[in-house]
Design brief:
Layout (H helix, E strand, L loop, with lengths): L1 H23 L14 E4 L3 E4 L4 H24 L7 H8 L2 H12 L1
Antiparallel strand pairs: 1-2
Length: 107
């Protein structure tokens, strides 16, 4: 049952990510990156985070945990407001970020 739910959820996430990319991309945007999630939350079980290696997987989990704490902190003071989708996309697919990722892959 869990395996089926996970497979369905992953497929839905990939479709939604592709739609996000298609909606927000610009003429000079880098190609869409891997549409798989880096973090999955499974109620009653916990968090699964992964990356290219063990170190990257640990960092992914740490960044996610820190992001949740920032959201909680904002809610404790007033309210958390996420960036608009286009602004988030422009940060995620910033050309200088893409250049940094390409250099990291080459190492």
């Amino acid at each position: 049952m869990l395996k089926k739910q996970l497979l369905v959820g992953l497929e839905q996430y990939r479709k939604e990510y592709a739609a996000y990319y298609d909606t927000c991309k610009r003429a000079d945007s880098p190609p869409m990156r891997n549409p798989d999630p880096a973090v999955i939350l499974i109620p009653g079980i916990g968090m699964i985070a992964w990356g290219a290696n063990e170190r990257e997987s640990r960092l992914t989990a740490e960044f996610y945990t820190c992001a949740v704490e920032v959201m909680r902190g904002a809610e404790a003071i007033d309210e958390y407001i996420a960036l608009p989708r286009q602004e988030a996309f422009d940060i995620e697919y910033w050309l200088l970020e893409e250049a940094k990722l390409k250099r990291a892959r080459a190492l």
